[in-house]
Design goal:
The chain is an alpha/beta fold and 400 residues long. It has two domains: 16-28 and 270-399, Aspartate Aminotransferase, domain 1, CATH 3.90.1150.10; 30-267, Type I PLP-dependent aspartate aminotransferase-like (Major domain) (Aspartate Aminotransferase, domain 2, 3-Layer(aba) Sandwich), CATH 3.40.640.10. The chain is built from 15 helices and 15 strands.
C-alpha cells in the first residue's frame, strides 16, 4: 500500500496532467490552500464569536468574524453564517431554522437538475420533510413556471419553496419565483451552491434581496475550500445560527473558516469578476463547439448556457453517460455522467454528461482552448487515443 505522501504526490500529478471539466470542482489559490493548513486546525470552538463553549478562542473569534463581515459585504446580506461543513449541511440547517419536520416543501426535481438535499427520498431532507417537485418543460428544457405556479396553488399548505440546481445551465429568475411563493404564503430559499461565484460577481441575479435564506457551497465557482455558507435576512439570523449550531453541527472547522475568509477576500477583488466573466464565455464556447459537431451524436440541452456548465445529451453516440465518463477518464479527461430531463436510462447509466468551465478557466483557458477540448472529447468518444494530446494541452496551459 502506498504511503499518504505518495498518494498526495500521485493526486497532484493527476490533477496537473488532466483536463478537468467537472462543474463542481476548481483549483484554489495558494493563499487559500496555505490558510487551510494552519494551526487553526488544532482549535475546538463550539459556539459563535464571543459565545464559545471553550476558552482560548480570541483569535478564532477574530477569524470567524472577519469571514462573516466579508460574506455580508460580498453578498450584500444582513447576516451570514460561515460554519456549515458543506452545501448540504447548509441546506439541512436552513430547513431546521425555517420549517418543522413534516412540513411540505416545493423544490426542483433531482432528475431535472436539482440536488439530493432538495428532498430526495434517500436523503435526510426527504425523510424528515414532505417534498413535492417542479421540473422543466419537456420542449424547452427550462424551468416550467406554469407547473411551479400550479403546484403552489394545488398544495395550499406549502411552507417553503427551494430553488437552485446542480445541473441546470440557465439563469434562474429568483425574483419571480419568490413573488409567487409569497403570494401562496410560503417562505423562499435559494441554493446557489453552483452559481455562488456568479452571484458574488454580479453575473447572475442575486436571490439575497428576495430570499429568506440563501445557501451555498464554497468550493465551486467561488473558488474556495470545501465547505458551505448561509446568508439571510436579519429576521432569521438567530434561527439560522441555531440551525447550524447546535441544530446540525458541533464544533466548526476553524481552519476552513479561515480559508473561507481568504476566498472571500479574493472574491471581492476586481480580478474575480473578470474570472467569472471568462468562466461564462468559456462555457458558452464549449456549448457552441458541441453544437458544431454531429447533431445526431450530441444535443446541447436548452441550446446553450448562461452559467458555468453545459448539459449534453450523448445518447446519439451509442454510449451512455457512465461509459463516456470512464472512457474519457482513461485518457485524462474528467467530467461526469448526468441525468437529463425525462431520461429513459437509470441513474447508474444516464443519457447525459455535465461539462464545466471553472477549473480550466482558473488555469487561464480561453474560448479557443475550450473548443479544442470539445474536439478532444469527440475524438476520444469516437475511439481515438488522445492522452498524449491531453497532456500536451495541459503542459501548454500551465506554461502560460
Amino acid at each position: 500500500m502506498p504511503t499518504i505522501e505518495e498518494l498526495i504526490s500521485r493526486e497532484r500529478e493527476r490533477q496537473t496532467h488532466s483536463i478537468n471539466l467537472i462543474a463542481s470542482e476548481n483549483f484554489v489559490s495558494d493563499y487559500v490552500k496555505r490558510t487551510m493548513g494552519t494551526v487553526f486546525t488544532n482549535k475546538y470552538a463550539e459556539g459563535y464569536p464571543g459565545k464559545r463553549w471553550y476558552g482560548g478562542c480570541e483569535f478564532t473569534d477574530q477569524v470567524e468574524q472577519h469571514a462573516i463581515d466579508l460574506a455580508k459585504q460580498l453578498f450584500q446580506a444582513e447576516h451570514a453564517n460561515v460554519q456549515p461543513h458543506s452545501g448540504t449541511q447548509a441546506n439541512l440547517a436552513a430547513y431546521l431554522a425555517l420549517i418543522k419536520p413534516g412540513d411540505k416543501v416545493l423544490a426542483f426535481k433531482l432528475e431535472h437538475g436539482g440536488h439530493l438535499s432538495h428532498g430526495a427520498p434517500f436523503n435526510a431532507s426527504g425523510k424528515y420533510y414532505k417534498f413535492v417537485h417542479y421540473g422543466v418543460n419537456r420542449d424547452t428544457g427550462l424551468i416550467d413556471m406554469d407547473e411551479y405556479a400550479a403546484l403552489l396553488k394545488e398544495h395550499g399548505d406549502i411552507k417553503l419553496v427551494v430553488t437552485g440546481a446542480s445541473s441546470y445551465p440557465r439563469a434562474i429568475d429568483f425574483a419571480r419565483m419568490a413573488k409567487l411563493a409569497r403570494e401562496h404564503g410560503a417562505l423562499f430559499m435559494a441554493d446557489v451552491a453552483h452559481i455562488s461565484g456568479l452571484v458574488a460577481a454580479g453575473e447572475h441575479q442575486s436571490p439575497v434581496p428576495v430570499a429568506d435564506a440563501v445557501t451555498m457551497s464554497t468550493h465551486k465557482t467561488i473558488r474556495g475550500p470545501r465547505g458551505g455558507m448561509i446568508v439571510c435576512s436579519g429576521k432569521y439570523a438567530s434561527k439560522i445560527d441555531r440551525g447550524v449550531f447546535p441544530g446540525s453541527q458541533g464544533g466548526p472547522l476553524v481552519h476552513i473558516i479561515a480559508a473561507k475568509a481568504a476566498m472571500l477576500e479574493e472574491a471581492l477583488k476586481p480580478e474575480f469578476k473578470q474570472y467569472i466573466q471568462q468562466v461564462i464565455k468559456n462555457a458558452q464556447a464549449m456549448a457552441a463547439a458541441f453544437q458544431q459537431l454531429d447533431g445526431k451524436k450530441y444535443r446541447v440541452l436548452t441550446g446553450g448556457t448562461d452559467n458555468h456548465m453545459v448539459m449534453v445529451d450523448i445518447s446519439g453516440t451509442g454510449k451512455n453517460g457512465i461509459q463516456i465518463e470512464r472512457l474519457l477518464g482513461e485518457q485524462s479527461i474528467h467530467l461526469n455522467k448526468n441525468f437529463i430531463p425525462y431520461d429513459p436510462l437509470p441513474v447508474t447509466e444516464t443519457s447525459g454528461i455535465r461539462v464545466g468551465s471553472p477549473l480550466l478557466t482558473t488555469l487561464g483557458a480561453k474560448e479557443a482552448d475550450m473548443a479544442q477540448v470539445v474536439q478532444l472529447i469527440d475524438r476520444a468518444i469516437a475511439g481515438e487515443k488522445v492522452t498524449a494530446e491531453v497532456h500536451k494541452f495541459m503542459e501548454n496551459l500551465l506554461a502560460r
